[in-house]
Amino acid sequence: MIPVRGYSGHKVAVIGLGRSGQPTVAALQAGGADVIAWDDNEAARAHAAAAGVPLADPTRGRALDGVAALIVSPGIPHLYPAPHPAIAAAWEAGVAVDNDIGLFFRSFATPDWDDFDKAPQVVAVTGSNGKSTTTALIAHILAAAGRPVQTGGNIGRGALDLDPATSGMTVVLELSSYQTELARALQPDIAVFLNLTDDHLDRHGGRGGYFAAKARLFTQGGPARSVIGVDEPEGAYLANVMREEGAGDPVIALSTTRRLTGFGWSVTARKGFLAETRHGKQTAAIDLRGVAALPGAHNHQNAAAAYVVARSLGLGPRPIEDALRTFPGLPHRAQTIATWRDIRIVNDSKATNGEAAARSLGTYDRIRWIAGGRPKAGGIEPLRPLFPRIVKAYLIGEAAPAFAATLGDTPHAITDTLDAATRLALAEGQPGDTLLLAPACASFDQFASFEARGDAFTALVREITGTESPKPLTRARLDGP
Question: What is 346-374 written as a DSSP string?
Answer without folding.
Answer: EE-TT--SHHHHHHHHTT-SSEEEEEESB
